[in-house]
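Q: Could you write out the predicted structure for this multi-component system? I'm mainly interested in how the pieces pack against one another.
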Amino acid sequence: MLQLLALHLVVALVAPTMMRLLGRKGFILLALAPASVAVWALVHTRQILDGNPVEVHLAWIPTVDAMLDFRVDGLAWLMMMLVGGVGALVLFYCAWYFASGAHGLGRFAGCFIAFAGAMLGLVTTDNTLALFVFWELTTIFSYLLIGHYFERKGSRRSAMQAIVVTVTGGLAMLMGFLILGEVPGGSYRVSELVASPPPASGLLTAALVLVLAGALSKSALVPFHFWLPGAMAAPTPVSAYLHAAAMVKAGVYLVARFAPGFAENPVWIWLVLISGSVTMLLGGYRAMRQHDLKLLLAYGTVSQLGFLILLVGQPDRGIALAGLALIGAHAMFKAALFLTTGVIDAAAGTRDLRELSGLARNLKGAFVPGLLAVVSMVGLPPAAGYVGKEAVLEALNHGGQPRHWVLMIVVVVGSILTFAYGIRYLWGAYARKPGVPDTALDREHIGLFISPNLLAVGGIVAGMVPALGEYLLAPYAMSYPVGRPGHLTLWAGFGVPLGLTVLIVVVGSLLALARPTVERIQEMISPPLDADRAYRSSMRQLDRFSASLTSYTQSGALPVYLGVILIVGIGLVSTAMISGNVVPGEVRMWDSPVSGGIAVAIVLAALLVVRARRRLKAVVLMGVAGYGVVLLFALHGAPDLALTQALVETVTIVVFLLVLRRLPAYFSNRPLVASRWWRAIIAIAAGLVMSMLALSIPGTRVHEQISQDFFTEGHLFGWGNNIVNVTLVDVRAWDTMGEIAVLLVAATGVASLVFIRHRQRSVERVSDYDPELPPAWHEGPDPGPALRRLGDPGKPVTGRRGQHWLPGGATLAPYRRSVMFEVITRMLFHTMLVLAVWLLFAGHNAPGGGFIAGMVAGVALIVRYLAGGRYELGEALPVQPGALLGGGLLLATGTGIAPLFFGGQVLQSFRVDLDLGVLGEVHLMTTLPFDIGVFLIVVGLVLDILRTLGAEVDRQGEAEGRAAPDVAHDSPRTAVDDVELEEARAGGGDT
Amino acid sequence: MIEASPSLALVIAIGVQFGAGVYLLLERSLTRVLVGIYLIGNGVNLMFLLAGGAAAGPPLIGTGPEEEMADPLPQAMVLTAIVINLGLTAFVLAMAYRSWQLHGHDEVQDDLEDRRLARRAERGEFDSRDDDFGANLAVEAAEARDETEEPVISEQPSPFARGDRGDGS
């Protein structure tokens, strides 16, 4: 069982490759997959009929009762034969049906096999949740198959309609299954549910209605019938499979599966009776006025599905037996009819029965299976369809209850309609019509005719051995609760059933003969309710509703969105605090008076930032607040934080200044007065709520700190004394891992925003400097080349080693140079790098570590850039930032993964003791390479910032040569896109 | 358990930086928004510290009794937050610079797509679906043809080619 499912999965995956290698003949090989299902079922026939269902159990998600339980009994056996047999024949047919150059055959084949596999799982599983999963899988694959020609609007619409309708039903069914699983006495095992149904209750009724909704939507019964005719946009072989054995049969299967346990429930009976009857009559009525052969058959299927569900949904054994027989008969004749229609379509190039003529004589290979299949469909002896329908009439004749009489009338009227549209199909497809010339036909390959003929002949042969059918199907029919066992036979003697059959044939023939009149009458009566139209208009309503909802809620303004988020956040937090009765506990003024003073400075700086109109002022004040936080960290016992924040603060201010030199000096004066009060209210509320939170949080602690153990464990297992660093590289190394990844992404983002045209290939060094061009950082006219000490104008301007404090200084505009700065830089740079390396190694036991060391090295690079310009930066570190970032991440992840190869866990740390003899013992921590990786990434980030926001912005500024105005603009300007939009709208209105 | 009562100085520093940050966050200039985010970040970092307990010794083993050391966990978290803040700052500044290059200012514009959608809804463009093309199934059915014919390769009439089809195959 599981092997069969796995086989379908594997074949579906390799199908595209196979089709590419073998061309369309690959279908023949692929047909073996579904064929194996039928063979498996045949091999197990005896065992299953003897009342020993094949069962397989596999735990899947036991906690939610989702198990891969499979159980093959008589019904599942029948379905497997159909799914496998019809599937194989349809695939075989495909090998000649499609043109060898047809598009997307690999995708088609993969979807088809996967669809067959999902269908196989659906009909064999014994777990309702697994059933639901397979159910939805068939929906998805049928969606892909119906929408095979996705470049056509009609295809897409039909596929979408099918999936919307069936998924809606599927979800309802899932709810039903959940109720059935959770009610007292319920179960997630289908066999248990049917064997001992939960006691009747309102909940149970609701569950049954929901499950039936799923079945009816899948089987295209009223009121969900409209998706099936639309699905004829699928390639014809898909239609054949969909209508005959798969997809729509899933609904019939589900009803047959649950009927033995639940069919006596009055709600079930009435739902099945009403929906089935209306569907049977409506489908037949509408089939009679179609001109497209495929559409005619599609409406015929709708009618037949109503008929089948009517039968297998009744609690009576006799009716159920007839229903099961008709499921098999329908699979054979409907598949044969669709495949025959495909042959006609391929040969004649049309399916319109007003254009087809003379095919009975000219296309015998299609006429024979068409005729035989129609004989079975309309219920003439000796076909399987006749046997089934006789059994139905016989069982209903003996039923005796009012519903049996209602059913009898429906079946007879429905059968008359079936007879009429069956004749219409035969006449339409094959007859020679007066006034229509014989249709010109292509020669089709003999292989194309094999499958439809086999199926049609099979339908006749099966009817000629009714006893075999009874032997195979009676065991499952006997599991139905009431009524006498039925019989399948070709000749049941003279009686009511035979009389009704004669009536059906006579009235049906008359109806078919009066075809023009009937069509005219049908055209005059337009149906008051059109489900398809209702569906379309409801979809339009949905569009309109969601559009108006979107335009109402999505104003497109960032401040509005942020404001809404903040208001909700403030509301939630304050509500929680009030309802949770969180009150601030004891409060101290300050840890020390110094921290009080620092807090005052921070507050003043923050308030002044808000008022600042000049960008530079805002950034400097922000820096004041930042350095205030540095001091608070230091006073609070967090030396690592203080160091990090101080360095980051410095780098941040430099980054701001690098960008601000290109931006207008002042913030633009948008008329924001109107919203200012709102913003102030939200801001004050946010500040107050956070203050209250800050007051309350420390008092809410109920547990010991988790970090209590860090001291001993960090020392014992992390071999470090600086617990913050041990936390970063060992205890919570995963956090650090994520963080350095974020840094890498941010650095990449910065570079891609600024290097818009190309990524610089090589690092710009002093030797790349072109003395013909103006120097770096020039502005306005050069005050005089005499100020520059460059030597001969013809010589390249490279500072020779030892002759300059900084080699890149000569590349700057003379008035931008500062000798003092260059000298100090020369003296400090290497010292800072040494300090960085020391911090990196010492960080495990003293304040320091990869982050801090990286920032120190970054600051050293910043100093070099500020003193000597972008060529100097290239001299300082002639590598691409990407190399540092990538190398760092590689090193860190490598260190993280390495322990796996030594039997450890990811990111576990080890100590390596090396005895170097004379040099003494060295203790190496495996966390050190990790920290070096962090170091490299931080250096890479700073270098990336300098390369992009520094060097590249320099270059762009020099190239463009335009300085920013003091204020960007005084009134909000409409964006370019907006203007275009307005113009397009105006233009569209004129024409 | 370590001394937990909050210090008012820290609380006020948190509250004011938060309020000022939110006020700036609700503006449109990216630079001001970024300054706002920075202030909010400071407030959050201090809040972490506050939640970790009152001021104490640095968590360095060997510098004093462990009971008098500050909680190292919030410190480690804040440390990563500070560095990430740098990455964010650089990214938003690069965005501001790009915006200035393109539009001459660094203001966040309204989302055009949202406004376009609102306008389309006003004009009733959603009253019909573009895939709703066939008046009925019969029309759609006539359009649905399978790829069963070999494509015409040469000008020579091939036995498979049918010129009068017009089905695009």
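A: Regarding packing and overall arrangement: The domain at 8-59+69-103 of chain B is CATH 1.10.287 (Helix Hairpins).
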